[in-house]
Structure formats: structure tokens, C-alpha cells
Amino acid sequence: MDPQLKRLALAAAFSPASARLGRALRERSPDRHRPLDYLKHLPPAGDAGALRDPETLAPVLHRLADLGWRWLALGDDDYPPLLADLEDAPGVLAVRGDPAVLAAPQLALVGARHASADGLDNAHRFARAFAGAGFTVTSGLALGVDGAAHQGALAGGGATVAVLGCGPDRVYPPRHAGLAERIVQGGGALVTEFAPGAGPLGAHFPLRNRVISGLSLATVVVEAALRSGSLITARTAAEQGREVFAVPGSLHNPLSKGCHRLLRDGANWLESVDDVLAAFGEFRRTLEHSPALNTARPSGLLRHFTGGVNDLDALCRRSGLAMAELADQLAELELEGRVQRVAGGYTARTAPSRD
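RESULT FIELD:
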């Protein structure tokens, strides 16, 4: 079966429970198992028909592939490594644009949809400065701060990633369709964990927000009310072990209250790009604690590990090693304490901090 059709079928069957699919994929590679093999993992509201007869999705695959969409499964070489470290990583991502940008150092920049003029200006300026400093700017394509962040990154000659809260067959909000095209043409990417046909439901946006923060080394909040999706994104980033920055604002602006609460709760103060650059030590620790990105390796085999359980078939496929050589290297890494044998395969041990 076409590997892309298989991945689309899995996405369609499990959407919006993509994290549940992710847990299943840590044990079962889609290149080694049939779609039906995932039936026992399907939630009650899942689409079993997509697993039983994936060929019905072939027209959808061809139509979206012609537009540049492709599907990445957790465990694939080009699945974003920082996202793979999350316990609730999406099982399958639909990506339009350059998937390599998903592995680049990213900063999430989020904020209010009904932002003030100052908020929009700050989002644009910071995004442009981050792009100039070599970061990819990641946001949610929403009106307000998100749109200004994407535009600022493009104005700075950088790449930007838009994470959608709907399926790949639509752009939400529709007025940002042109911006979405500019993101792709500018070397960035559109990303969604939702299946074709999925609309921009309210329940989708907290899920989308965890992907925004999960792709990124840090999350920057420009403006936010006390009850807002941006604060959810910031809280999720902190739970993921990522840095959080907040931009202080006027005491008379209700959209500054969320940022001020984040600052009281320990978020980093952000006035200039230098404040972000000063956090490189924290970013380094994030990278050193990432099984997918850890560069302190005694063997090249560890670069083929993702977060969670890595089964032998997947490691064999990713590394290109013969099974005997793979077993020898795994034994060596186990003796060195770099990997641990668990049910279903091996996990990479977290490297100790060298600070």
C-alpha cells in the first residue's frame, strides 16, 4: 500500500485523537503494520472504515497531494524531533511546504485575536527580529497577533510555520488564505494533525496550541486576556519544559493582564530580542534533554531514536543497519547507559546536564 495513503488513513481514523495514535505508533511502525493492526487502539468515536478500506481515501490523497500536502508519521525521519519528545505527540501530521523547517530552531509567537495597534506592531517587530536572528517563527494563522507574527517573519526574510486547527483541505480564517500561500512560498510550512474534512471546532484549538509550543524552543505571548488560548499555550509550553516569555504592556490595556499574570508567575520578561538570545543556555538544556536531538552521542545510532519506545524494525529501517550490527550497537549503548531495553524495544536515556 502507498505509504502516504496509509498515513492519511490513520489520520482520518483517529482524528481528532491524534495523540492516541501517536502512542500506538511508538510501538507499531506504519511501514511494518497494516492499518487494521491499529483497530484495537481506535477510540469509540474513531472512523474504523478508514482502517478497513483505506482505498476510499485515494481521491482525497491525490487531490491534496497535488496541492503539496504530505503526511508524516511519528517515527518518520522527517517528523519534527522536538514534537516527537512529547508524550502526547500527534501520530500523523499533514504538512504543506518544506518539512525540514519543522526541525529548525523555532520560537512560538502568540497573542490576542483582537489585538491592539501596539500589540500588532510588537508582534510584527519581534517576529521580524527573531527571523533576522535565525529563528523560525511559529504561530496559529489566526487573526490578530498570529497573523502579524507570520507577516513579520516573512518581512524579515525568515521562514514561518502555521499550525492549523482544522483539516488540510481548508484555511481558517479564510481571509488568511493569501498569507498561507506566502508562508509556503517563503520556505515555511502549514501543519495540521487533523484529518481532511475537520472543521475549526473550538475543541481543536487547545490541541493545536500544544503543537505550536511543542515545535518550539520557547513561547512568546504578546497580548492576552486573563482567559485566553494564548495563556493555554503558555501553560502548555511550561508543562513541556519549554521557556515562556511575555511582553509587558500598559496597565490600562485589558489585553496586558494575561502577560502580567505570566510575568508574576515566573515567565521571562521580553523587551527586545536580546532577552531571548540571553536564554540560549535554557535552550541548550532543552536540546540536551531531547532524545531526538541530543548531540552528545557515542554512536551514530542514537540519531535514529525518537521519544518513547523504538522497536527493532523501526530502528533497522531508519538506520539502514543489518539486524546483527544493530543488535551489537544497541548492546554497546545499553552497557554505556545511553539506552534502556523496555517492553517493545528501546528508549534513549536522557543525557545528564553538563552545566
